[in-house]
Amino acid sequence: MEELSHKRKMAIMAAILAAMFFAAINQTIVSTAMPRIIAILQGMEHYTWVITIFMLTSTIATILVGKLSDIYGRKPFLLGGILIFLIGAFLCGLSRDIYQLIVYRGIQGVGAGIIMSTAFTAVGDLFAPRERGKWSGVMMSAFGFSSVLGPALGGWLVDHMDWYWLFWIFLPLGVVAFALILALFPKTARRESETIDYLGSLFLSLTIVAILLGFSWAGTRYAWDSPEIIGLFSAAVVLGIIFVWVETKAKSPVLPLSLFRNDIVTISNVIGFLMNAGMMGALIYISFFVQGVEGISPTYAGYVTMPMSLAMVVMSTVIGRMITKTGKYKRYALLGMPIMVAGMLMMAYMNSVWMAVAAMIIFGLGLGVGMPVFSLTVQNAVSPADLGVATASSQLFRNIGGTIGIAVLGTIMSTSLASNLTAKMAEAGAAQAQLDDQTRSQLAGLMDPNMLLDQPKLKDVIASLPANVQPIAEQLVAALRDALSSSLTVVFLWGTAIVALAGVLTVFLREIPLRTSNRLHQEDAGTERSAELRPVR
After folding, report:
1. Sequence-separated contacts (24+) of 439-444 with Cβ below 8 Å
2. Residue 112: C-alpha distances to residues 62, 168, 486 (Å)
3. Which residue from 113, 255, 276, 515 has the highest number of Cβ atoms inside 10 Å of its Cβ?
4. CA-CA distance, 243 to 239, in Å (whole number)?
5. Could you tell me the maximum CA-CA distance found in the chain, to the nearest angstrom?
6. Would you state the pLDDT for residue 342?
C-alpha cells in the first residue's frame, strides 16, 4: 500500500469505523425486535434458521475473503461487503414471509463477514503493529456502542414504527461509508504470482457448514446421538481431512497450514476459541436469570447487559492507547482474563438484579482489558503478506468457539434443568395430591420453564385458577424459579471454567516486540525472525 499522510489515514479510519458500525448496529438493533418480526411473518418454527443462516454465511465469507484480500487488496472487498450488506438489509425489509427473511439474512451475513474480516485487516495495512493497539480499542468501542444503542433503539422502533424500518433506518450510513471508502481508500496492485485455491475454498466451506450446523442443531432440533448430528459431525471430520490434504498440495492455500506452525498464532486462536465458547455460551443465559428467575420484563432486562458494553467501551479504548504507548500487550491479557473469570463467577452465584449488573460491569471491564490483545498478537506474528488470512483465521476460531459454546452449555442447561425440575416438583407434589384431575391438569402448564420468560401470560394463567388453588400455583412457580436458578449456576460455572482455561493458556503466549513499521526489508525480516525466538523481558 502507498505511504499515506496521517490526515488521510484518519479519514480512512473514519470510513472503516462507519462501515463497521453500520454492520454491527444492524445486528444489535434487531436483537430485541426479532421475536415480534418472526411473529408478524408467522414463522416461529423456523426462527433458529434466521440466526443460523447469518452465522453460516458470515463465517464462511470471513475466512474466504481473508486470503482473497491478500491477493487483490482490501478496497474491492470493503466496497463489495458494504454493497452486499446494503442489498441484504433493504431486502430484509421487503420480506413477506419467513422464507424470504431467511434468504435475505443470508445475504446480509455474507456482507457482514466481508466487512468485519476486511476492516480489521485494513487497520493492519494502515498502521504498524505498535499503533494498532490504539485502533483495536477504538474498533471494539464501535462494537460496544452498537451493543448499547441497538437493543434499546430497536425496542423503541418496533413499538412505534413498522418493523421494516429497523432494517432501513441506517441504510444512509452504509451509503456514506461506501462513498468515503471509494474516494479515500488506496488501491493496491494484485499479486500476479498468486492463484485462487478454489478446491480448498470449497472443502473449507463445507467443513464449516457441517460443524456449525451440527453444533447449532445438537440438543435443540435433534438429539446429540441422533443420526442427523452424528452424520454432520462425521461429514465434518471427513471434509476436514480432505481440506487439509488439499491445502498441502495447493500453490496458494486459502488457509495456509504453515500459519499454525507459529505458536503465537496457534495459542492466540485457541484462546479466542475458548473465550468465545465460555463467554457466548454463558451470556446468552443472562436473560434467563433476569427474566425467568427475577421476573424482570424484556424491556428492562436489556438494561442489565448495557453496563457491560459501557465498561468494555471505556476499557478497550484506554487499554488500546496503553498498548500503543508501551509496546507491551501480554500484561493486559494476563490482567483481563482473571477479571473476566471473576465476573462470570459472580454470575454463577448472583441472587439479585443488582448483583447481575455488578457481574456484567466486572465482566465488561475484563473484556475491555483482554479482548483487544488477541487480534493484535496474530497480526504482529505474521508477515504483512499474510495479514488478511491470519486475521480471518482469528475470527473463524472465535465464531466456531461461540457456536460450540452455546450448544454445549445449552445441553448442560437442559440436562441440569430436567434433573432439578424432577427434584423440585417432587417436593411440591404433596400439595397437588389433594387436588382433582382437572386442577392438576391446569397446574401442569406451570411446570414449563418457558412460562417464566412470559410474565404477562404467567400472571394470567395463575389469575384464571380458582382462589384456593392459586397459592399452590405460586408454590409451583417458586419451585420452578428455584430449579432454573440452580441450573443457571451450573451453566455459569462451566462457562467460568472454560474462560479460566483460556486464562491459563495466556501464560504461555509468547510476547514479541510490536513492529513499528509495516515494511519488511531483508534486514527487518531478519530482525523479526530473531525477535520471534525470544520473549520480551
Report:
1. 439/465, 439/466, 439/469, 442/469, 443/469, 443/472, 443/473, 443/476
2. 8, 16, 37
3. 113
4. 6
5. 87
6. 94
Per the structure block, which three cell numbers stand in for 465?
385458577
- Dihedral of alpha carbons 497, 498, 503, 508, sign: positive
Q: What is the pLDDT of residue 526?
A: 41
Phi and psi angles of residue 174, each rounded to the nearest 5 degrees, phi first: -65, -40
The rounded distance, in Å, linking the Cα atoms of 167 and 25 is 10
Amino acid letter at 250? A
pLDDT given for residue 392 in this prediction: 82
Asked if 227 and 174 count as a contact pair (C-beta separation under 8 A), the reply is no
Contacts of 121 (CB under 8 A, 6+ apart): 66, 69, 74, 387, 388, 391, 392
Residue where the block lists cell 430497536: 154
Quick one: pLDDT at residue 444? 60
Write the pLDDT tens digit of every residue in 156-175. 777 778 888 888 988 998 89
Where do we find the cell 464449516? 208
CB 66 within 8 A of CB 389: yes
Q: What share of residues in the chain are helix, strand, coil (percent, to 5)? A: 80, 0, 20
Q: According to the model, what pLDDT value does residue 494 have? A: 92
Output the DSSP codes for 290-303: IIIIS---HHHHHH
The residue type at 356? A
- Report DSSP letters for 40-57, one per residue: HTT-GGGHHHHHHHHHHH
Classify residue 290 by burial, with Cβ atoms within 10 Å: 0-12, 13-18, 19+.
buried
CA distance 289 to 417: 13
- What phi-psi label fits residue 49: left (phi over 0), alpha (psi between -120 and 50 degrees) or beta? alpha
C-alpha 186/C-alpha 11 separation (Å) is: 12
CA distance 207 to 407: 18
Distance CA 208, CA 236 (A): 7
How far is Cα 288 from Cα 279, in angstroms, rounded to an integer?
15
Q: What global pTM score does this model have? A: 0.78
328 and 376 in contact (C-beta within 8 Å)?
A: no
CA 264 to chain centre: 22
Residue 445 DSSP code: G
- In sequence order, the β-bridge partners of residue 218 are 222
At 297, is the pLDDT very low, low, confident or very high (cuts 50, 70, 90)? low
CA gap 415, 41 in Å, rounded:
32
Q: Burial, 438: exposed, middle or buried (Cβ in 10 Å; 0-12, 13-18, 19+)?
A: exposed
Q: Which segments within 438-490 are labelled E, that is strand?
A: none
- What does the angle CA 415 – CA 420 – CA 423 come to, to the nearest 5 degrees? 135
**Cβ-based burial of 225 (10 A; exposed 0-12, middle 13-18, buried ≥19):** exposed
